Amino acid sequence: MKYRRLGKTELDVSVIGIGTWQFGGEWGLQFTQKEVDAILDKGQELGINLIDTAECYGDHLSESFIGDYLSRRKREDWIVATKFGHHFHERFTRSDKFGAKDVLEQLDGSLKALKTDYIDLYQFHSGPDEAFDNDELWTTLDKQVQAGKIRHLGTSIGSNDNLHQTEASTKVNSQVIQVVYNRLDRTPEQRVFPSCERQDLGVLARVPLASGYLSGKYKPGAVFDSTDVRHRHDPESTRQKLEEVERIAREEVPEGVDMARWALAWCLRHPAVSAVIPGCKNPAQVEANASAAELVENEG
After folding, report:
1. Which fold has domain 3-295?
2. Pfam families annotated for this entry (predicted)?
3. Predicted TM-score (pTM) of this structure
């Protein structure tokens, strides 16, 4: 495994993290604690130290799985990132809750679910600029940092070209940007990444496999059933993506290299990116994801 400094947080994170949206049930899979333990144990065995979750991945369900695991392991071995701002109702249904009082309640809920007394990275979760520009929210969060409940603040931008929230990061003491970035969507390279580099913000690249399109498993014409999140995507857009993936596999991926490994390492080539946070269904996928670090050039 390789590690990078997460911007001005000074945390050293594994370049491959573990995204945990799937634990909330919205991938059409229901996980058991034993399955989650196996995934996280495999991650630690391979040198991964970064877990990314959110309070709305199944109404603290993902956090609860992680918390149960952490309660039986060394908490300090992990950098735990979670998010705030939404209330989970049912699959794919959430309501915004970005008020300062609401966020304090969410923070306490996350700490309880995670069975910890501190969160390493607490992120504003894909909210509108109006909610972000609330001074009371950030003043309240700063007090929680001072109280030791939060080590660092971050922002998970909803639009991967949200320059407003990125540019305002230093002002509100947000030290990390989480953004959609992958070989099919390079938008952040234009404006967001240069701003992150100027401010020395850490960058977490989410959806690095483009919702699995860059896994190399699917050909043009693939159909996803109703339990799969990709079933909700526009069919024409899906067709175009899979045709582009086929071209990338043919023209860019070196012969003999697994496409998913290549796609994760591709994200990490950009100097702004600290880590990628792919999801995973089982320990074998964790192992495959972690192996992408071998394709990342040694630094420093």
Report:
1. TIM Barrel (3.20.20)
2. Aldo_ket_red (PF00248)
3. 0.93
Would you say residue 238 has pLDDT above 90? no
Sequence-distant (≥ 6) Cβ neighbours of residue 17 within 8 angstroms: 48, 50, 51, 52, 81, 204, 275, 276, 277, 278
Residue at token pair 């000074």: 10
* CA 74 to each of CA 23, 40, 66, 77, 298: distance values in angstroms, whole numbers, following the listed order: 21, 12, 12, 6, 28
Helices 100-113, 61-70: inter-axial angle, 10-degree rounding: 40
Contacts of 101 (CB under 8 A, 6+ apart): none
Pairing of strands 93-96, 86-90: antiparallel
Task: Tell me if 117 sits within 8 A of 153, measured CB to CB.
Answer: no
Instruction: Summarize pLDDT for 243-281 with one digit per residue, the tens.
Output: 899 999 999 999 999 999 999 999 999 999 999 999 999
d(CA 50, CA 13): 6
Of 102, 104, 122, 145, nearest to 54 (Cα)? 122
Neighbour tally for 267: CB within 10 Å: 25
Break the chain into its structural domains and give their ranges: 3-295
Taking a C-beta distance cutoff of 8 angstroms, is the pair 120, 151 a contact?
yes
